[in-house]
């Protein structure tokens, strides 16, 4: 950075997230139908954008087979009814798929290759369980390239507790309870609903229904309740279903544009891209990934952690958020962090989560003109982290 | 209920699955009913007594609730609902059963329009007959722009839209538009309209794209409920003048097409007239009475029989060999470059998408033939029926050759040369000299013997008759003729080709003029014979109007051309001199070069009249009723002889041929149901063609 052209986040929308599995909202709904619905809603919400002005459709999915295969970005664009002249492609950086879709098209915009792009992600973990069809090279283990626990995300979270012995199960559970409470409050305050697009859900035996809210949140979660949960990854361990994100289905999408094009078309930016960075760490402690990626992104932006007024950090595991906060000296209960709650409650349909963070940060920017900068950050399997630094166009200091 | 459940033992029950939907925009909760029979879209939702009862029970449960803002109805993927279960309708025996079907449909469907909360139909897929009527009962409707078929096909079959359609639709979209759906479309080859057209007619209040049709429909429903979206509709008018004008216009159309031959459209007209002023109960009861009359009448049974022939029997031709025996066709040869040959070349190229070579001995004729095909392709392109790439492809596929060498690698060669046995034999032997032994040789003869044509070939087992009907691109019938020595593989190939050409193949024996021409010529022979005896042309030509045929005999003669008619008559006369006569006047008409007896303004051409009158044998020919009796008697006699000769497997195949090849109507069931129900079969042949109940009300 700095980019040759300013890049802005114009709008973001997502389907409600569902619980994966045969009883979940989307048990009989196709993954491509989820992302198609999101793309159509983005276009509908931005009538000033002529569809033929979309220059790229970048859609992420971790498991790119079946209804998440066939170059999902292109096939979703066709299914969504965008002009055939609009190209598309598929992206994969596991959990940071949608985030990478955004940064990749942003790079293209900054370079001048695009004016406007759609970037998003979809993951139907019910139809495509984690690890479906993977074939890890035996050299990973034979040459000790990674630890045996590196491919099981829950084990990497347990490993993180070892690295940060001060982060106890009690702290992790307390963080999880707070996340559930924040989501319940955000729903009650109507902060979440505007960024959702209702999704038709058909089950052969039940007929058509309509998903209008996230299915995973468990309001009323208590520390006592969480304390009783099993620790499936380690006997007497720390990581439970209660202090982790679940296994979920959902899709997200965003409209990313050059600032000049947004102005030309009358699209109102909700965030301005300042910098982004990805970083690698040891795969067996992938949860620390956001630390080096954030340090790098801040350095590129010429900012320090103290300049950041809002954090949207993906809650794959409570321990991973707490490790990040503890590294930067931020309190567990700091109100700048995930004000609407996070993935422990909302759910985490892998490749789609990155844009959920951005959509929520954008809404907070709108309400918080005193905040100038925010970050969206997340950890990624195989030992990575990703961070995007955003500036608030509504920042009062700019006036 | 008990009276009609028994006739639907095998009902594919359309279930009414109910789920609560939280409507966006705080519009409240909707109970959303999904109609789903549990099968995929190839077996659409239909309504029988059990399905209606399930819907009724679902509405009972809904009515007990006080927390609902609205009720919705939608279908399974691709299908909304396509109407009453016809298999059950065909089994109705008594008037009481028929009335019960009518009343049950009304009682259940009307609840949707009489709830305490508004109801919405979300027409996501095909909606026909009762399927459209259930939507009409709802307070509001949305429709998907992807819906391929919206129709009230009842009059096409011999019914009326009798579950509210005739009463609700005219009041919703006005009598003129309603009659388009109720009368005009069903009587125009059962035309269906698409979702967008249905919206434009006012059948639906809003139209949404299929990609997120249900979501957008629910969002619209919420806005309607909260008052955010207005639902503009044309004001209802009881103005007698406009209703009378609309009904009179439709009646003229029905008269022109049917001459009173089938009661259903007339009943529909009466019901639409009634809808102007009749209260709901009265209108619905009138529908029930009309349904009961029609369900206990033979015209409808013939309609259902015809529908079944076209839907089922046409797809599984009786006597056709195993499909697996068919050989792959990668190239086709056409001998001849005349109009028929060129039409065939175009059809083969379009449907099989393989190279097609026309041959003719004369370069000029050949060039003309190929040019004709290329021009037709250009026309398709200009009309937007095909794209530029396809036009290029098709144009490249059709070529001409002066020699038959070009057939060397063809798997099918069809000849369409002059109707002369010697010429055709010569042509086939020349082709055989070039092609591979398994190449199928087909003849498009309309009356010559396929067996005789093949007799002198080295491989007579590969010769089949493929008798197309003019215009080739339009008429769906293909008579597939098996010669005495035709083998199964060649025959299977012929059927496979017919299917690929989107024709319905019917297997016929190698008998003079096969099925359609033999019957039409016999029929026409009686009409022309009457004129020869002194009956005025007009009288004879209109003597059979009561059947509601697509055109009068002399109009048909004009369409095929007197020369062709004469030729077929001569061939049949040679085969069956006792029954087929050659009219001297017809021969004179051909000699005079007349296109027929009608002048361009559809009056009788005085010169044609003179040709006939100068030859009149008697002083006074038979009157109209006598002409009718004779013609029908002749048909019955000929059909019986054809069945006895084994020309086709069964009377059903004769009827299928007459429906698909001659356009004879559903309400006559082709021809044998009509001959049976008018008593002609028994009078002339001593027996019926079909058992009672097959195409008539069971005894």
Automatic annotation (TrEMBL), chain B:
Ranges in a coiled coil: none
Q: Which domain of life is it from?
A: Bacteria
What pathway is it annotated to? Lipid metabolism; fatty acid beta-oxidation
UniProt keyword annotation of Ribonucleoprotein present: no
Is the NAD keyword given for this protein?
A: yes
Listed Gene3D superfamilies: 1.10.1040.50, 2-enoyl-CoA Hydratase, Chain A, domain 1, NAD(P)-binding Rossmann-like Domain
Q: Which UniProt keywords apply?
A: Fatty acid metabolism, Lipid degradation, Lipid metabolism, Lyase, Multifunctional enzyme, NAD, Oxidoreductase
Q: In what residue span(s) does the 3-hydroxyacyl-CoA dehydrogenase NAD binding domain sit?
A: 331-510
Annotated 3-hydroxyacyl-CoA dehydrogenase C-terminal domain residues: 514-596
The chemistry this enzyme catalyses reads: a (3S)-3-hydroxyacyl-CoA + NAD(+) = a 3-oxoacyl-CoA + NADH + H(+)
Q: Which family does it belong to?
A: In the central section; belongs to the 3-hydroxyacyl-CoA dehydrogenase family.
Q: Which PANTHER family match?
A: TRIFUNCTIONAL ENZYME SUBUNIT ALPHA, TRIFUNCTIONAL ENZYME SUBUNIT ALPHA, MITOCHONDRIAL
Protein name per its UniProtKB record: 3-hydroxyacyl-CoA dehydrogenase NAD-binding domain-containing protein
Q: Which species expresses this protein natively?
A: Sphaerisporangium corydalis
């Amino acid at each position: 950075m700095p980019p040759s052209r300013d890049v802005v986040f114009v709008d973001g929308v997502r389907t409600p997230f569902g619980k994966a599995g045969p009883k979940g909202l989307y048990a009989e709904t196709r993954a491509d139908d989820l992302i198609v619905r999101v793309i159509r809603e983005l276009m509908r919400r931005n009538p000033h954008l002529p569809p033929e002005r979309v220059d790229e459709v970048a859609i992420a999915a971790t498991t790119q087979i079946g209804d998440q295969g066939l170059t999902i970005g292109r096939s979703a664009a066709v299914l969504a009814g965008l002009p055939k002249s609009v190209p598309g492609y598929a992206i994969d950086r596991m959990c940071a798929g949608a985030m990478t879709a955004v940064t990749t098209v942003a790079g293209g915009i900054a370079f001048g290759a695009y004016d406007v792009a759609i970037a998003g992600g979809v993951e139907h973990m019910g139809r495509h369980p984690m690890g479906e069809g993977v074939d890890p090279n035996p050299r990973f283990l034979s040459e000790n390239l990674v630890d045996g626990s590196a491919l099981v995300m829950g084990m990497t979270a347990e490993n993180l507790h070892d690295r940060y012995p001060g982060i106890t199960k009690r702290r992790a559970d307390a963080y999880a309870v707070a996340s559930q409470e924040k989501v319940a409050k955000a729903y009650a305050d109507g902060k979440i609903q505007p960024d959702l697009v209702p999704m038709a859900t058909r089950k052969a035996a039940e007929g058509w229904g309509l998903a209008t809210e996230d299915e995973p949140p468990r309001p009323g979660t208590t520390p006592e309740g969480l304390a009783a949960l099993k620790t499936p990854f380690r006997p007497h361990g720390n990581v439970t279903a209660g202090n982790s994100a679940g296994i979920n289905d959902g899709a997200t999408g965003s409209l990313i544009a050059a600032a000049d094009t947004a102005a030309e078309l009358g699209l109102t930016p909700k965030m301005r891209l300042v910098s982004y960075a990805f970083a690698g760490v040891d795969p067996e402690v992938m949860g620390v990934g956001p630390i080096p990626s954030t340090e790098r992104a801040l350095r590129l932006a010429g900012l320090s952690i103290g300049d950041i007024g809002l954090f949207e950090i993906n809650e794959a595991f409570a321990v991973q958020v707490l490790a990040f906060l503890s590294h930067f000296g931020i309190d567990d209960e700091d109100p700048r962090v995930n004000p609407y709650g996070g993935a422990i409650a909302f759910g985490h349909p892998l490749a789609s989560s990155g844009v959920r963070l951005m959509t929520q940060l954008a809404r907070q920017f709108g309400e918080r003109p005193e905040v100038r900068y925010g970050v969206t950050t997340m950890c990624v399997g195989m030992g990575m982290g990703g961070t995007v630094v955003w500036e608030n166009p509504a920042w009062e200091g700019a006036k | 209920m008990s009276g009609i459940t028994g006739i639907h033992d095998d009902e594919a029950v359309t279930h009414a699955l109910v789920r609560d939907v939280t409507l966006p925009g705080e519009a409240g909760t909707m109970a959303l009913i999904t109609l789903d029979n549990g099968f995929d879209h190839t077996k659409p939702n239909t309504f029988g007594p059990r399905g209606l009862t399930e819907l009724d029970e679902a509405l009972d449960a809904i009515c007990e609730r006080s927390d609902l803002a609205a009720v919705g109805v939608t279908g399974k993927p691709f299908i909304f609902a396509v109407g009453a279960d016809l298999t059950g309708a065909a089994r109705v025996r008594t008037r009481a059963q028929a009335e019960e079907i009518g009343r049950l449909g009304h009682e259940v469907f009307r609840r949707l329009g009489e709830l305490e909360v508004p109801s919405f139909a979300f027409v996501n897929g095909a909606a026909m007959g009762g399927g459209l009527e259930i939507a009409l009962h709802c307070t509001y409707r949305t429709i998907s722009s992807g819906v391929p078929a919206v129709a009230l096909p009842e009059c096409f079959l011999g019914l009326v839209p009798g579950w509210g359609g005739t009463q609700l639709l005219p009041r919703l979209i006005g009598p003129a538009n309603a009659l388009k759906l109720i009368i005009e479309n069903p009587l125009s080859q059962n035309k269906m309209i698409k979702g967008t057209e249905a919206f434009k007619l006012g059948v639906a209040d809003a139209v949404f794209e299929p990609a997120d049709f249900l979501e957008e429909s629910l969002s619209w429903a919420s806005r309607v409920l909260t008052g955010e979206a207005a639902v503009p509709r044309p004001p209802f008018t009881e103005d007698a003048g406009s209703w009378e004008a609309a009904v009179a216009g439709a009646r003229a159309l029905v008269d022109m097409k049917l001459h009173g031959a089938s009661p259903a459209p007339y009943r529909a007209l009466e019901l639409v007239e009634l809808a102007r002023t009749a209260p709901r109960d009265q209108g619905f009861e009138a529908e029930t009475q009309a349904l009961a009359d029609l369900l206990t009448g033979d015209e409808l049974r013939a309609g259902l029989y015809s529908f079944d022939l076209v839907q089922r029997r046409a797809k599984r031709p009786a006597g056709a060999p195993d499909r697996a025996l068919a050989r792959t066709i990668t190239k086709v040869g056409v001998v001849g470059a005349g109009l028929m040959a060129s039409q065939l070349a175009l059809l083969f190229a379009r449907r099989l998408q393989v190279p097609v070579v026309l041959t003719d001995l004369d370069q000029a004729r050949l060039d003309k033939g190929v040019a004709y095909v290329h021009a037709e392709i250009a026309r398709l392109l200009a009309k937007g029926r095909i794209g530029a790439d396809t036009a290029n492809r098709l144009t490249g596929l059709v070529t001409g050759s002066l020699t038959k060498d070009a057939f060397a690698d063809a798997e099918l060669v069809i000849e369409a040369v002059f109707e002369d046995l010697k010429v055709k034999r010569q042509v086939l032997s020349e082709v055989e000299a070039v092609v591979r032994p398994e190449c199928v040789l087909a003849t498009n003869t309309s009356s010559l013997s396929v067996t005789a044509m093949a007799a002198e070939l080295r491989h007579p087992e590969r010769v089949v008759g493929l008798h197309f009907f003019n215009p080739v691109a339009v008429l769906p019938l293909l008579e597939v003729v098996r010669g005495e020595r035709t083998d199964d593989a060649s025959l299977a190939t012929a059927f496979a080709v017919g299917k690929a050409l989107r024709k319905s193949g019917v297997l016929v024996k190698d008998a003079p003029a096969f099925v359609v021409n033999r019957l039409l010529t016999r029929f026409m022979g009686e009409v022309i014979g009457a004129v020869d005896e002194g009956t005025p042309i007009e009288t004879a030509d209109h003597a059979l109007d009561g059947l509601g045929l697509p055109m009068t005999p002399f109009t048909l003669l004009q369409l095929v051309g007197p020369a062709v008619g004469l030729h077929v008559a001569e061939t049949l006369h040679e085969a069956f001199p006792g029954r087929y006569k050659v009219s001297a006047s017809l021969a004179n008409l051909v000699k005079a070069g007349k296109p027929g007896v009608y002048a361009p303004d559809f009056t009788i051409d005085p010169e044609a009249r003179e040709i006939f009158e100068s030859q009149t044998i008697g002083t006074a020919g038979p009157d109209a009723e006598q002409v009718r009796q004779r013609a029908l008697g002749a048909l019955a006699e000929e059909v019986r002889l054809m069945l006895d000769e084994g020309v086709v497997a069964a009377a059903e195949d004769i009827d299928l041929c007459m429906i698909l090849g001659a356009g004879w109507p559903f309400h006559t069931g082709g021809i044998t149901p009509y001959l049976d129900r008018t008593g002609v079969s028994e009078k002339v042949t001593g027996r019926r063609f079909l058992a009672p109940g097959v195409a008539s009300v069971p005894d």
